[in-house]
Hints:
Strand content of chain B: over 45%
Structural class of chain A: mainly beta
Distance between the termini of chain A: 30 Å
Number of strands of chain A: 10
Radius of gyration of chain B: 13 Å
Largest sheet of chain A: 6 strands, mixed
Oligomer: heterodimer
Distance between the termini of chain B: 36 Å
Number of strands of chain B: 11
Number of helices of chain A: 0
Order of helices and strands of chain A: EEEEEEEEEE
Helix content of chain A: under 10%
Radius of gyration of chain A: 14 Å
Shape of chain B: globular
Largest sheet of chain B: 7 strands, mixed
Order of helices and strands of chain B: EEEEEEEEEEE
Strand content of chain A: over 45%
Shape of chain A: globular
Low-confidence stretches of chain B: none
Structural class of chain B: mainly beta
Low-confidence stretches of chain A: none
Helix content of chain B: under 10%
Mean pLDDT of chain A: 91
Amino acid sequence: GESVGLHLPTLSVQEGDNSIINCAYSNSASDYFIWYKQESGKGPQFIIDIRSNMDKRQGQRVTVLLNKTVKHLSLQIAATQPGDSAVYFCAENHQAGTALIFGKGTTLSVSS
Amino acid sequence: DAGVIQSPRHEVTEMGQEVTLRCKPISGHNSLFWYRQTMMRGLELLIYFNNNVPIDDSGMPEDRFSAKMPNASFSTLKIQPSEPRDSAVYFCASSLISGETQYFGPGTRLLVL
């Protein structure tokens, strides 16, 4: 039968490829953005963040790009590994003192 | 740092019973958040506290749910009476201030029969 529930976008890549996960945000006033990784059976884990005064920020194997013109955020993972398989969430904050707003998530599946 | 601590990690109970979930935030963090995650609805914010004071509880499903934060190092989420539709993973998270990076606990998997 048909499954019910959230249908998260899925990205399937081969080990060693680069992955790009995208996120659109709605509030032009948002000034702080975060990417989280959630592995099966675990809580979301912080990966990388970026503030609105930046366009790009790099971490270890990960890069976050922010395009404020089109309200778009992306997470790039270099040389994707099987351990990168998880659900990835973007989150934004548009008002100081309020909670983050989380996106629905994207499932990344890495095959070796 | 030990990170955010949640207990119990798993809870199985019968419909109608009271369930209490516990959370210890990261020391020094001033904001604490309770989330519920299900396949149907994804990650939902239930309530959050700043400096032990509830700021926004609009995500709390109904009166059966209540949350307290008696001090900076402890919070509870209570469901009374529990129903099967409450079955989910409940996460607690904390941050230095709200709107900044949140650090999540491992979650409590609740199954209400």
